[in-house]
Amino acid sequence: MELLGIFHKRAHMEARGLCDAPYTEKGAHALAARDTATQEGVLACAQGRMRNAAALAGELGLMREERSLARIVLAAYGRWGNGYYEHIEGPVLTAIIDRDRDKLILARDRMGEKRLFYTAEAGCVAFADHPDLLLEAGAARPVIDAGGLRELFALGPARTPGRTPWRDLYALEPGCALIAQGEDLRIRRYFCLEAAEHGEDAEATVRAVREMLERAVDDIVPLRPAAMLSGGIDSTALTALLRQRMDRVCTFSVDYEGNAQHFRGTSFQPERDAPYIKLAVERIGCEHQTVELTQTALAQALEEAVDARGFPGMADVDSSLLLFARAIAPQARFVLSGECGDEVFGGYPWFRDARSLNAEAFPWSGSLELRAGVLKRRVRDKLKIREYVREALAGAVGRVEHLAGESAQDRCLRTMQHMCFEFFMTNLQERAVAMCEHCHLEVLTPFSDERLVQYVYNVPWEMKFLGGREKGLLREAVGPLLPESLRYRKKSPYPKTCNPEYARIVSGMTQRMLAEKTNPLVQLLDVRALEKLAASELSPTDTPWFGQLMAGPQMLAYLWQVNAWMRGRHAEITL
């Protein structure tokens, strides 16, 4: 958390010692950020990694000592005005406060690797990189209305693009800029995935993908990162490319107490990661450590994971990454991750079956009956979960641009991938960034390089499934880097705990939550139905709530997180 600002003619706000960040005022405008620059009534700030910083600084004629990101942003605004952000590349947030023109510009990076939240009312805009900062500063009230509850129970932990569960608090979407002048506010989208004909054959496409991956890794080599290594094709290929460019690469994997004993293969997770990690380490030649997490630690970190994200998240899938990042942080400042590979190259099960796209629900939403069934009848009748999901799905389908003459299957798969970027990948990106930043570790995700994403988005699906395999294009592009058994390993998601002890712990936490009638979520839940569920034999693979990883125990942990989030922020619920 490094960025907090306010834009208003009559504004006054304290910096509240935010991360020891410098605090600057321009007239009635205020900004707390690590990297700021000012000139003639204009205040600029930047946060993140600007991929083209050196080239842009040279183009703008900045001396070496003037090349902070904020100074580059300030100079870019001076050169190009309102469209300055179109010239900036990489995961970086920028803000301009122009006092003389009474203007604010906020810009979020193209793929949404950095988060930016805002609230706006009567010519006042407050913004931050973490939602809790806006609540703490009094810029937004912790009110959850019916729309917010629908986000939590119909879509959560995913969210509708631009929305949050708080009534008047919004997320700036990826590739968008917010421009406020006086009392006028508008959102301008400056980047989106565009449908275009793909004119290259399979051989040229494989070569282009390999070159783009190498370029994306080259961009981060100067940071000398460690790597999260799962033994899957995504993380292993990136680690292998990194090792070709670095003399020494430290890698880390995560496992859970008792998992070897309790693991049972499923269609989602057919095999354990450990044998493939060992194979990858031997092939690549890296220095590897395994971080083993206990069930107790996993459960105890659930609330801290909420604080890191600022919202209820993916339960222990979040808390495990937080603990994993905490173990890596003393040994590395940056860490490489294979996040986003499945979204870009079509690795999820729903890409294999066009019939999984229907008009009723997102393919990763889990059971809508379960989502509605945990609520009291009066709440359920008010929220109309199924109708909300149907409307959100229709909106998502309507935002997809198609090519003339696309086959029905290609239209379906393009729609599926576009929705996956908007709803599913953004949730996983938020998880990765928030958990790692909370532990003072910066995660690097080369698969989310917008140049690669835009290119692969328009590759025909028969090429993406080259060889009849999911992610076949990626497998072919990185094939020479990997042993055959790893190259053709069936996709397996981020590892989660299979130990029934975890289910017992979260069941007990749920029962204690339900027993305390003053807990905010208890006012909304069908307590008897949830008590019965918590007392049942929860399977790590049954009772789906979200995606491939959030089953029975994670569903209870998610609800526990929702209650902790509401309670910790003194939420006001209005139905």
UniProtKB/TrEMBL annotation:
Catalytic activity entry: L-aspartate + L-glutamine + ATP + H2O = L-asparagine + L-glutamate + AMP + diphosphate + H(+)
Amino-acid biosynthesis is among the record's keywords: yes
Assigned GO CC terms: cytosol
Residues annotated as domain Glutamine amidotransferase type-2: 39-135
Associated pathway: Amino-acid biosynthesis; L-asparagine biosynthesis; L-asparagine from L-aspartate (L-Gln route): step 1/1
Any GO BP annotation: asparagine biosynthetic process
Enzyme Commission designation: 6.3.5.4
Keyword annotations of the record: Amino-acid biosynthesis, Asparagine biosynthesis, ATP-binding, Nucleotide-binding
Origin: domain of life: Bacteria
Record-marked site positions (Important for beta-aspartyl-AMP intermediate formation): 339
Coiled-coil regions listed in the entry: none
One family name in Pfam for this protein: Asn_synthase
InterPro entries, per database record: Asn_synth_AEB, Asn_synthase, ASN_synthetase/amidase, GATase_2_dom, Ntn_hydrolases_N, Rossmann-like_a/b/a_fold
GO molecular function, one term: ATP binding
Ranges for domain Asparagine synthetase: 209-566
First-tier enzyme category under EC: ligase
Family as reported in the entry's similarity comment: Belongs to the asparagine synthetase family.
Protein name per UniProt: asparagine synthase (glutamine-hydrolyzing)
UniProt organism field: Candidatus Pullichristensenella stercorigallinarum
